[in-house]
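Loading example: each entry is read as three labelled lines plus one structure line.
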Amino acid sequence: MIGWALAGACVVAGMGVLAAVVSPRRARPACVGAATAGIGVAGLVAGVAALSGQVLQARLPRLLPLAGVQLALDPLGGWFVAVTGGVLAAVALYGIGYAGGGHGPSGRGVQAALPVFAVALLLVPAAASASTLLMLWELMAVTSLLLILAEHRARPAVAEAGWWYAALTHVGFVAILLGLVLYAAHAGGDSFAELRAAHLSPALRGVVFVLVLAGFGSKSGLVPLHVWLPRAHAEAPSPVSAMLSAAMVNLGVYGVIRVGFDLLGGGSRWWWLLVLTLGAASALYGILQAAVAADLKRLLAYSTVENMGLVFLGLGAAGVFHTSGAPALAALALAAALLHVLNHAGFKALLFTAAGSVLRATGTRDLDALGGLRSRMPATTALFAVGALGASALPPGNGFVSEWLLLQSLVHALPAGGVVTAVAMPLAVAVVALTAGLAVATFVKALGVGFFARPRSDAAAAARESPPGMLAAMGVLALGCAGLALAPAALGQVLSRAVGTAIHTPANVVGGGVSLHLAGIASTMSPLLTAVALAVAVVASAALIRLVTTRVTRRRAVALWDCGAGPPTPRMQYTATSFAEPLQRVFDDVLAPETDVDVTPHAESAYLVARVAYQARVPDRVEHALYAPVIAAARRVGRLGPVLANGSVHRYLAYGFFGITGLLLILAVTR
Amino acid sequence: MTVFNLWRKIRQTGRVAEPAPPRPPGVSCPKAAVLHGSVQVRHVDAGSCNGCEIEIGSAFGPVYDAERYGARLVASPRHADALLVTGPVTRNMAVPLRRTFEAVSEPRIVVAVGDCAINAGEFAGGYGVEGSVADVVSVDVQVPGCPPEPEAIVAALRGLTGR
Amino acid sequence: MNPNELIATAVQVVVVVVGAPLLVGLMRQVRARLEGRAGAGVIQPWRDLRKLLRRAPATPTGTGWAFRLAPLLLMGTSLVLAAVVPLLTTASPLDPAADLFAVVGLLALGTVTLALAALDTGTAFGGMGASREMTILALVEPTILVAVFALSARVGSTNLAAIVTATLHDPLRVASPASLLAAAALAIVVVAETGRLPVDNPATHLELTMIHEAMVLEYAGTDLALVEWASSMRLTILLGLLTSLFLPWGIAAASLAALPLALAAFLVKVAALGVGLGAVEVFIAKLRLFRVPELLAGSFVLAVLAVASSFFLA
């Protein structure tokens, strides 16, 4: 079943590439989109089959010289394959609608890259040897780079984002490569079974883990390796952004779980404290940047950094519990992390597609220029609201369920172990709490400023609702979010199975019917009950109002209260920037915002001001502090190039002569 | 120990509110019949010399304590049942007054406080004066005086709350 | 589902719905008396509500469903909270949902609906109120959850009924440093969440100093009645939650016989807390908006100390 589904996905991908090459430009996105959706469905089937207990083991020695290709899918991989497949299917359908009317990229190369990217995403969690994993990983990286660069002719920022992505993803790749090669060299083989059985010294295991963590962490946007993410996810075409943010970043999480828990077997506690710290830093930094961002897609990208931070925080907690001998708590934390991966994929795909619809309809992603979409794009607004509810982790949303699980595992950690947990876990709870609070503020801003009130620009005022195809795809995602929000207990068994392959726990971690029960902890939560109670209470209060108001009090249409000074214009509304100003002030020291005031005086007198230009930005501080010096150093080294290579043939011949002589000398001395 | 001093002050001062005059027989204005002991008031200074404002301030102060009869000053005319308008209506305040009046939900009660509000008083015919409050919006209750005494303002408000 | 549980929970909801305006009236009366006034009487908020319920709501130009739905949603969340939080009884049919994190989330949901409604009006004051309210909400969250950590760590559950029952069985726990510190931290949080002094002044008329009030400037009639009613219910529930967590005596289990006693105990405790809060407000002034984060940081430190003491002194 799994084998057929994955093979089918590969065949469909081949057909998709073919279609991209031969079909006319107009029909191209539809053909490729259908193929990608097919790949997604095949992935969903394969993932669900793996989660229900089927196992795939495949060796294809001929496919790749020397090492061969080894594939295997267990429940852990199946979880990620299923998540990826679901996202791909829905987003690819959305992409077909998105491409209508000449929107989005339809170039041959970009369209051919899409099915390859999709199938690489699906196969990464199915890789069963280091070489296969690395090959698929690089395939994924290269095709995603092509997709990100799709609109580089239209906007220079795209090319810059592409540079950042290309550089960081390859630094990450090199780190993973080094780590896994080191591991495989000492294990005597590169298949996961051999790696699992290997006995390495603790120091070496630590080195391997740190290298692998850096590599996979850069893919998930872990601070300080996140700098590519807000650029690339914001500048890529929106359906691609959705795939990157909802599917690709998850694979970093998969990699850390696979190598850290499954292959290396948990390791030592400091690894996981490191993961916990990095996760906490990413969560806080990501959401702080998202809270002050005025660009809708950049905001969503930083929110991805935040959510991946929360997932890594969960992984770190799971590792700490695992190494301190509390397997039940470890399983719970890992289950929380995995569930958050799924929830995040659901709401982030929805949010990015909705943001894409806004971008398509208005041509801008600047929240300060949006507004008033509620009446012009009612369905998109409602769908965005569903996603925002999930992202802000408030009760009847899906994000709440996984954050609740995460908090449960952290809160009940005190009996589990010594001083380290007693210090780390309350702080982790505080980080999760502050993150959740800021996420609420962020998404109130995104929804309230971007979609409600009155349009702040002509582009927003002229917006039109998206075609039904896009809305249908987003509707599927919204239904998925609602299902995850209301009936998370239905996933209990498969979730436990996925957790069980990473750390071996026998019992069901999470279970229950209407309410969610946890193994070993008395807390329960019932999202369905809460949602029903809320609906009943709202209806009851509406009925109460009807009942109490004996006289028919008709709703009166009135002008906005303007303090008597005349109708307020759209310019008088709060913008995203002004909304975030108090938060920006409170977190001044972390964010280090920059303001430029440029005063131009009149020619006649320096005291007469002709023009004042005011500019406020919140730059990525990590980028400034960490990367700017590296880039400057690289530039300086690069400037040496013209000195060495000045175009003189004599000099090049001399280089060759001295090079060979030097080599011969070395050989003569060492042999 | 400012907290302690304040507490001592509170203890020593005790109650400063004057005893309430007899309860009015009913509401003074038919529109106020729906209010049943609760009136939210928005104050509009339409061009007053601020004499009336001082008196309104003391009507809501501890001594006269208009709040005990169910009247309360609010910030938004949407929350208000009545407007308390002072001063002759200047040219610049005519439109804002009308807008504020329209922002109050039905039934809107307008209380003209002070002689200027009733007939433009000293400022009648002035260059910057549009006229009395009644020239701009319909007035339901008048409180004469220049400035009116706090008792008179409180009595007018009690006429609205009926308490 | 036990009929006794249903009746007890229904009584609890009715008590909160009917009693909440009276609590606000009581607090205003206390303030008035301390200021030397006579005061409007405890039932004045009910008179205000009765009047507002008879007046027409308004739909300002350019507002949409977010503005229309917010009062109902705010009321809805408050009603669910009134049914879920153990105030009179620990045996609620909604017990599986009576999780402290869920309660915190529902409180935040109510605030969020109001903030979205304020943004929906597109007025400067609405946006200002929403922005400030969200800032405070974000900063309050860590204190709440860390205090929850301190309270639930030893019980082994974040279920409210379980925490309350555990405290009832082990009364000395209330006097532990962890519990006292958590109580102090949560008290500050309650003040911030309900928009009382020194965080926000509920009696202010100056829009520029407002937080909560700035969000509801556009509401009129029945809408305003719902918002004010729900806000008073949130105040009652939060004060009740404080008493349930730290002074749980008198709370009934599933039996109806203990309900009158529980009712009396609840009224006394919440009224006492309300009087105390009202009295304190006379003595303090509103903090500058950008000093509020310092206050909240202080409460966060208290909460962290509570966790630390629950671990190191246990």
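Residues 91 and 130 of chain B are 5 Å apart (CA to CA).
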